Amino acid sequence: MGLGGGRVRFNVGGQVFETTTTTLANAGRDSMLGALLDSSWNLAPTISGGGGGGGGGGVAEYFIDRNPACFAVLLDLLRTGSLHVPPQLPEKLLYREALYYGLLDHVRAARWGAFDGDRLLLAASVPGRAPGDGTAIRAAPDGGCCVAHGGAVHVYNWMLDERRPVSLDHSQVNDVAYLDEGTLLIAARERLGSMMEAWPCSPRFNEYGIGVWDRASGEQADFFYEPPGCALGDADKLQWLDATNALMVATLFPKTDNCFIGLLDFRQKNVVWSWSDAGTAASLDDKRVLHAIAMEDERSVCVINQYDDLGFLDFRSNAGGVRWSSRSKLMNRKVPGEESCYPKLSTHGGQLFSSMNDSISVFSGPECVLTSTLRRSNGGAICDFSIGGDRLFALHNEENVFDVWETPPPPII
Amino acid sequence: MSGGGPPRKRNFKIEEFKNRVELNPKYAERTWKVLEHAIHEIYNHNASGLSFEELYRSAYNMVLHKYGEKLYGGLESTMTRRLKEISRSIEVAQGGLFLEELNTKWMDHNKALQMIRDILMYMDRTYVPSSSRTPVHELGLNLWRDHIIHSPMIHSRLLDTLLDLIHKERMGEVINRGLMRSITKMLMDLGPAVYQDDFEKPFLEVSASFYSGESQEFIQCCDCGNYLKKSERRLNEEMDRVSHYLDAGSEAKITSVVEKEMIANHMHRLVHMENSGLVNMLIDDKYDDLARMYNLFRRVTDGLLTIRNLMTSYLRETGKQLVTDPEKLKDPVEFVQRLLNEKDKHDKIINVAFGNDKTFQNALNSSFEYFINLNNRSPEFISLYVDDKLRKGLKGATEEDVEVILDKVMMLFRYLQEKDVFEKYYKQHLAKRLLSGKTVSDDAERSMIVKLKTECGYQFTSKLEGMFTDMKTSQDTMQDFYAKKSEELGDGPTLDVHILTTGSWPTQPCPPCNLPPEILTICDKFRSYYLGTHSGRRLTWQTNMGTADIKATFGKGQKHELNVSTYQMCVLMLFNSTDGLTYKDIEQYTKIPASDLKRCLQSLACVKGKNVLRKEPMSKDISEDDTFYFNDKFTSKLVKVKIGTVVAQKESEPEKQETRQRVEEDRKPQIEAAIVRIMKSRRVLDHNSIVAEVTKQLQARFLPNPVVIKKRIESLIEREFLERDKTDRKLYTYLA
C-alpha cells in the first residue's frame, strides 16, 4: 500500500518501477502482487515494512528479487491489458515469471484473440517424436491439445509444453475427447468402443448399437440397439445436437459401402431422420460421402466426398438427396499420385471448416462461401484437425507435426 | 492444467534468472524454519515484522526445488498444533464467554489462513493440483472443523449453547443475534454438511418437540382464532430468526416443522372447534380469522382441502335447510333474496379472506348448484323474483343497480339444472307483465333477455324476443286502425288489441266468452280491418287475458272509473240492464269458464273496498246458488278503482302439475332430436354412450332423465329411425 496518491514503487532485481495501486488492482487479490499490497501485510507503521529499504519521496518501495525485463512486460500487461513480448525475450521465460506472480491466466487471455476463421495466423508448428501416423488431434477448452498416436495420447498444455503421454496399456487409440480441461476420455480398440465424443453423457458403440456412459460415475446408463437397416455399430461420427436433443450418427465410406446418416432420439429410442445412399452408388467413381457434420443451426448436415465437394442434407425433409455444391476450382490443387487423406469437416461460430490434402478451407455465411484457406508449405496432407480454446490445431500426416493457428489480438485501432 | 516445474530442457537459458542456490541439504530445513516461524508469528498477531516478498520467495524456492511435500506437510502439522492450542483456550472459556471466544478465535484463524495462503500461493497453484492435495484455504477450514468444532470438549457444548440461546429467545429473552449469526456463518463456511449435521438437524428436532408441546398447551386453552394468531406469530418469529442469524436454506425446513407441529397435527381439531371453528367464523363473517386460517392451512398438505370440505358440507347443509323449509317457501321473492344474500356473504368471504381462490369459488358454486336443485320450484321462484323486480322492485333504481341485480339472478340461473322450466315460467310471467303493461323499464327487460341469450343461446330467447316484437307491431297496428277508421267508429268504446303470434306466447286455447254487444261491434270492425290488411291470418280472441276501463255511476251520483279484466267487464255490463242476476244467469249470458267466473265474481263482490257487486247470501266464497246485485252504496276515495282478479301469485297445485307436464312434453322432441343428431354422426352406438352424450348435449337446458331417454330411444325404434343390433342388444344402429 503505497503512499503518495496511490503510487507504488518496486525495485525488481535492481531496476525501479513505479506504478499505481489502480494498475496493480488489475492483477487481482489472488496474485502475488495483490497479496503484497493487501492491508494484512502492510500493518507496519513504518514504510520499510514492505521488505525493501525505505524509498525516497515518501513512496513505499517493495523489493522483488526477480527478472526486471519480464516484470516490465507483465506490468505493461496490467496497465494496458495487452501483451507485448520483445523479440529477444523467450516466451517460456515470460510464462515462468507470470506463474511466479500468479499472472499466467492474464498472459493466456492476452496471448491470442477470440477465434475468427478468417484471421487465423500460424502460431507454431510442433514436431512430434512418436513413430507412425497420428490418428486424431483434439483441442482442449483452455487452448491445449492432445494427439492420439498409435498406442498413446500426447498431451500439450496451452504453452505447447508436452506433458507425460497417456495410454490405456498402449492398446491402439481410436479417438480421444476432452470432458473438461482436466479430464480426458480415451477410446481404445481393445475396449468395446471405436469412438466417442464429449457430451453431457458420452455415447460410444459396439457392433450392436450405441451405449451411453454417465459422465460423473462412469457407469453405462443407456444402450441404443441397432435397428434393422441402420448401421450404428460401426459409426464414423457421433454428434450430439443440443437444440433437437438428438444424436447424429454417420456410418460412411470407406468403412461401409453404403453410407448412412441418422438422427437418434434416445428418449423414444427411435430414428427420427435418416439418409442412405444404398442403391444409388454403383461404381467407385460415384460421389461417396466421406465425412459429415451437422451444421450449427441444426437444420442440415454438411457432407464431403472424395472430390472435395461439399454437400448438404436437409433435416427437415426425409426424402431429399444430397445437394452438392461443386468446388472444381479447388480440386485443381489435388496432385495426382500424392498420398492423400480423407477430408474432414468441422464447424465453429457459424463457419464451416474442411480439410483436404495439405490445406484447410474456411467457408462463411449461410451460403458457405469459401473465404480463407490455411496452408503450410510442408508437412504433407492434413489427416485431422480440431478447433477449441480459440485455436485451430491441424495434424499432418507426414513428418508427425501439428500446426497451431490462432487469431491475433485485435488491432490497436 | 499448468503443472510440473519449468521446462528442464532449456535450463541453460533460465539459469541466469534463478536464485543462486547451493544444493545444501540443510537448505530446505532452514527455509521451512523461516516459514514456520512466520506462521506462528501470524497466529500471534505479530506479522508486522515479516516480509511478504521474502516469505513468498522462500515458499516458491521450496516448491521449485521439489520440497513441495515437505512444505505442505509442515504447514499441516504446524496449523494442527496451533489449532490444538486454540481449542484448549476455547475450552476454558466460562459460560457466556464461550461463544465469544470461539468467534474471536475463528476470526483470527480466518485472518491467519488468508495470510498463510498468500505466502504459499505458489504452492497452491502448482504443487497442490499436480499432487491432488487440498488447497490451503480448504485445508485450514477442514483442520478447524476437525480440531475445534469436532473436538469432544467443544462439539456438544457448542450445540447446547446454540440451542439454549434459541430456546431463550423463543421464551422472550433478548440474545446476541450478531454473535449467533457469526457462529452459524462459521458452520456454513466449514461446509453445508457441517452446518446441517452439527447444528441444523438437532435444531429441527428440538424445535419439533418444543412446538409439539406448545401446540398441545395452546389447543387446550385457546379458541380457534387465538390459536391461529399464536401459530402465525410463531411462524413469523421463525422466519425472522432465519433471516437474522440462520442460513437461508433452513427457512423451508424450520417453517415446515412449525407447520407440521402447530397446524397439520391439529388441523381437524381446529376447524371443528366448538363455538370458534370454521363454521362459526363463516357464520360470524370473521374475515381476519378466516384469512389467517387460509394462509396458515395453505402451507400444509391437505390444509385447504380440509377447509374447503368443511365449508362445502356447511354450505350444503344450510342451503338444504333454506330451500326445503316450507315456511320459507311461502314468499318466493324472499326465498330468492335469501339465496342471493347467502351467495353475497360467501362471495365476500372468499374474496376478502381466501384471496379469491378459484378452488373455493368452485366449491361455493357446486354447493349452490347442489342445493338449489333440491327444490324443483327454484326455477319458478327465480322467475318470480325477476318478475317482482321488473314490475315494481326496480322503480327509482339506476341502470347500474338494475344490472347488478339481474347479474346476480343470472348467477342463480346458472346453477339451475332445469333451465327449460325457468324459460317456461319466465315466458308466462313476461306475458303477464307485457299484456297488463306492468313493465317498469323496457331496457331492463331487454337487458335480461340479452343475458339469457348470452347464457343459453339464440334458441332459448327467440320466443321471448318474439313477444316484444308482437307488442311493438300491435301498437303500430292500433294506431293505423284508428287513423284509417276513426270516422266509422264514432263514439263507441276504445279498443286496444294486442296481436299475439301463436306459439310465442304461453296461451291456452280457450273458448271466447260472450262479449257485450257494444264491444262486439268494434271487435268485428277490427277483425275485418286486420284481415283486410293481412291476408291468410286467423284471429282468435283471448278474452281471458284482456283488461278494460269502464265508467260507472253509483247511487249518490258518484262516478268512478273501474279498471277490470275483460271477464269482469262482461259481468258488469250485464248490470246495465238489470240490478240482480243469479250465478247461473251470469254463466249463461257470458259463457265464462266456471273457474274463471268464480274468481271474477269473487273479486267483484267479496273484496272489501272494491265490492261493486253485492252478493246474497253474504259469504267469502262463490256458490252456484248465489245471486248478485249492483251495489249502489259503493264508495271509494279514489276516482279510479282497480279491481284485481283474485289470483294466486304462485301457481296452484294443479297448475303446477300442468306446467310440469308441459315441460316434460316439450322435452321429448328435444331429447329425440339430440338422439337423432348423435346417431346420425356415429351410426352405431351403445346405450350407455347415447345416454351420456344426450345428457352432455342437453345439460345446458335441463338434466334429462335416463329413463326418459330410454323411452325416447324405444319410440325412435318403433318409428324406424333406429334399430337394435341383431347380435348385440345393447347396440343401436341409425337407419337413414
Automatic annotation (TrEMBL), chain A:
BTB domain boundaries: 6-119
Pathway linked to the protein: Protein modification; protein ubiquitination
Any one GO BP annotation for this protein: protein homooligomerization
Entry-linked CDD domains: BTB_POZ_KCTD-like (cd18316)
InterPro entries listed in its UniProt record: Beta_prop_At2g24240, BTB/POZ_dom, T1-type_BTB
Official protein name in the record: BTB domain-containing protein
From TrEMBL, chain B:
Keywords: Isopeptide bond, Ubl conjugation, Ubl conjugation pathway
Keyword Ubl conjugation on entry: yes
Pfam family, one: Cullin
Residue span, Cullin family profile domain: 377-605
Single GO biological process annotation from the record: ubiquitin-dependent protein catabolic process
Signal sequence bounds: none
GO molecular function ontology, one term from the record: ubiquitin protein ligase binding
PANTHER family, sorted: CULLIN
Similarity field: Belongs to the cullin family.
Designated name of the protein: Cullin family profile domain-containing protein
